[in-house]
Structure formats: C-alpha cells, structure tokens
Amino acid sequence: MIESVQNDKIKYVSRLLSDNRFRKKQQVFAVEGKQENARALTFGYQPLDFYVCAALFQDESPEGTVHWVSEKVYEKIAYRGSSEGIIGIYQTPETRLSHYQPKGRSAVIVVEGVEKPGNLGAILRSCEAFGIDALIITDPKLDLYNPNVIRSSVGCLFGMQVFQSENEQTLEFLKKHQFDIITTRMHDDAAPLQKRNLTGKSAIIFGTEHSGLSDFWQNEGANTIIPMAGSIDSLNLSNAVAICCYEILRQKLA
Q: Residues 29, 146: contact at Cβ < 8 Å?
C-alpha cells in the first residue's frame, strides 16, 4: 500500500497527468476511470501499471501490475478528483499516417490544427458513434493523450483509428488512396452538405476553431457548407463534425 504522496511512483503518475512533454518523452500515458480503462484494454492497448484505491474501486482487480494506494494518495494523483479509484498507465501507440490501410468505402474526418482538448474528445465520440473509419489530425497543436481528450471522448479514443500527420503528407495520402476530398470553407462555391455524395471513399477536411481551414486546402477538393436557418454563420467545430459524420452514415444507410 502506497500511503505517501512523496513516493517516487506517485510523483511519476502526477507528472504524466500534468506534463504533455513528459508524456511524449516517456512514450506512455495515463488513463483514469473504470469505463476508460475497460475500453483501452478491450481495444488492445498495452497496460504497464495500474494504481488502484480499494476504498473507491469496487470491481475485480485488473490483470497486470497493480499498485494499491490510499485514498489520500489517490486524491492527490487523480486528475478528476476522487473518480472511481483506478488509473492505468499504458504504452503510447504509433499514430503515423503511413500505418493506415483504408478500406474500399472508408469515410475519414481530417481536422487541421485542433487546439481544444474538449473539442477533440467530442469529435472522437462523434466519429466512433457514426462509424467513421479514421480520424486524421494534421499539424497537431495538442497532445492526443491529454487527460482532457481521454475524458471528453469517454474512452472513444481507444476504439478509433487516429493518426497524426502534416497537411502535405495528408493530402498526398488522400490522393494516393483516391479519396473524394471535401473541404469546409465559407465561400460562394460551397454546395450544401446533403448534395455531396458521401457514400464512397470520402474525406471531409475541417479547419481550426479560431480561423477555419488554412489556405493550403483552398484549391483541394469540393467545397461544402452545412445549411443553417438561423442568424449565425458558423458552428462549434465539434458540432460541425458531428453533423457531417451523421450525414455520412445517413447516406450510407439510405
């Protein structure tokens, strides 16, 4: 039983949860919560250690190396406070785009320079819920395994194919594999989303929360917009992605 917050293992876990650079250097990340750890294990992520508080965690002990900690220690390391009593430490998988082998009618979402962990987590939930084959993050500005991404995705990160790349390599990949490229820029040439044929091999490209798609994508693919009847002219990034993911599924089921 670890009862001191000054224990070296506890300091290590705390740093993994709070320091993006440290996570990347160590090539490991932390997962907090029962559902999130269950999904990570279900989808083949490799656990290294578990930190479990018996006073909070009532389920069967996970298989692997378990460090039992006091409630005081768990409250110290838990990113979300006293939540469910389990934190798992996992090996970070490769996320290079070259590892992706798309299928015949794959639907892909590409997000450029996403900045907010909560938005990325919500995007992951929508992609998983509506059967998107892969999510590609170009020019990433945040850590994919940030605890807030894992939390806001409710562990959906672990059931998705997620890749990180640069814009140039992503465009080259999409053309090589003959994806229909659809951009999302507010421009006069944009056609309504429901008019686009999304039943085949398609990739919809989204820009940043702040400024939208960069000029890099200006002349690439067919431009589209989400029709709106209200007075505003834009949606939150994660909401826009969710609508497009649903439209892809709707067309494929029609």
A: no
What are the backbone dihedrals phi and psi of residue 222, each rounded to the nearest 5 degrees, phi first? -95, 130
Name the amino acid, one letter, at 60. Answer: E
Low-confidence ranges of the chain (pLDDT < 50): none
At what angle are helices 117-129 and 237-253 packed, to 10 degrees? 10
pLDDT tens string 62-99: 888 999 999 999 988 887 765 689 999 999 998 899 99
Asked if residue 77 lies in contact with residue 13, where contact means CB atoms within 8 angstroms, the answer is yes
Convert the pLDDT of each residue in 111-143 to its tens digit. 999 989 999 999 999 999 999 999 999 998 889
Return d(Cα 174, Cα 138) in angstroms, integer: 13
Supply 128's token pair.
């998983």
- Are 190 and 212 spatial neighbours (Cβ–Cβ below 8 Å)? no
Which sign, positive or negative, has the C-alpha torsion 244, 246, 248, 250?
A: negative
Cβ contacts of 232 within 8 Å, gap of 6 or more: none
Q: In what order do the strands lie in the sheet with 222-225?
A: 161-165, 134-138, 107-112, 202-206, 180-183, 222-225, 191-192
